Amino acid sequence: MNQFRGIEELAERLAAILPPGVRGLRAELEDNFRAVLRANLERWDLVSRERFDIQAELLTRTQKRLKALEARVAELEKATSGASDAGER
User: Fewer beta carbons under 10 A from the terminal one: N or C of the chain?
Assistant: First the structure.
């Protein structure tokens, strides 16, 4: 999974900076780092950057469409208001 690639890299970096006396436990600690990182990231319910970008683009398109529809409704209300004002005279 692409989302776990960053976790793997971070776990490797954490294991790489261990003091020399603890290097014998590196594999075990690296596994523990991975487990802790995954558990916490899953609890935060994060989304991938790709999914975020897709949702941001969708939101932008939706906002543009909403503005266009609001402008159209305003024009129709204005036209309807003008027609009813002319009919009242």
Answer: C
Alpha-carbon distance 29 to 75, whole Å? 66
Same domain, 32 and 3: yes
Domain co-membership, 82 together with 64: yes
Q: What total number of domains does the chain contain?
A: 2
18 DSSP assignment: S
Determine the longest span between alpha carbons in the chain, in angstroms.
95
Q: What is the pLDDT of residue 75?
A: 95
Kindly state the percentage of the chain with pLDDT values over 70: 88
